[in-house]
Amino acid sequence: MRIRTLSLSISLGAMAFSALTACSGGASDPPGAGGEQGASEGAAVDEAALAPVVTDPATNAPGGAAPPTTGPSTAQPPSTVDIRAVDLANSAWLYSFGGFDLPVEVKLVNGEASSDGDGVPITYSLGDVVYGDVDGDGDDDAVARINRAQSMGSEGLWYLWLAEGPDTVQLKYPIAQTGRCSTYVESVVISDGGIALTEYQRIPGLDDAIPCSDPGTGLKKRTITVHSEGQDKWPVQTAPVAAWGGLCPGPRWNESSPGLVDLWAAPAKNSPVTATEAPDGGAMFEQKDAPLLQRDGWLLIGVKLSGMANEQGVTEMECAWALK
């Protein structure tokens, strides 16, 4: 019974409220709500007051155009340079005469440059360029030859150009030299993060009768890559043995010192090890002066390792770095 009474009371109350609103015409719109009555009774809307105030940045006063809005930056980090798009024929090169002097800058224009050496014209020209990954980082690099001619003499030096982020970097140490009455570079092949060089060297005495226009008989094959520590980069040889990958100046004297000290392929203790100290592991040769190869605390020496004869049965001299 109580439940029914409560339901009846609620129903009667709802009916009374409906009748009341029907007689009064319903609830009125609030002033300014958008109906005709509200629009006439409410305060007028100042649309100008609702517009955003724009301040002129130059005067800090209202007025002027709204400053442009910028979204979050979508700039991508710089990608690795395409070495094949680098114009080496119109670039500044480092060149070390003979492969051992301090480098000078040579600016090629359309593949050529010239200078005056003590009244004798010197010309430079771009030679062969080979592309591929020479340091194993997955990016293509370049090995290129620049030629130098003066009077009756000429030479060509092979240099590494590395793709380093958005830039290209030329290593100042040449890895091969070719010239008249000198070493002949037969081929340069890049694969598997290294450079395979095939050269013919002139053997003193044995090749003296061979014309200077022809290569010598000393076949040498070696593989070169790059060792990096911070900003320093050096060419290093990985085959047939770990050794210096640049040029060797040649022995100062014919005499050698028996035995070996600790030797590295570059002037850095983290570079590949050529040899460890051994009284009967081979022989060492003092090298000729080479300004390009001066390094504080280090000395480049020639070395012949026991048991490392080539295909002709000759133990070739390699170069490696020792602590002073």
From TrEMBL:
Alphabetic keyword roster: Signal
Segments of skewed composition (Low complexity): 57-79
Signal sequence region: 1-21
Keyword Signal among record annotations: yes
Domain of life: Bacteria
Sequence segments annotated as region (Disordered): 55-79
Name listed for the protein in its UniProt record: Lipoprotein
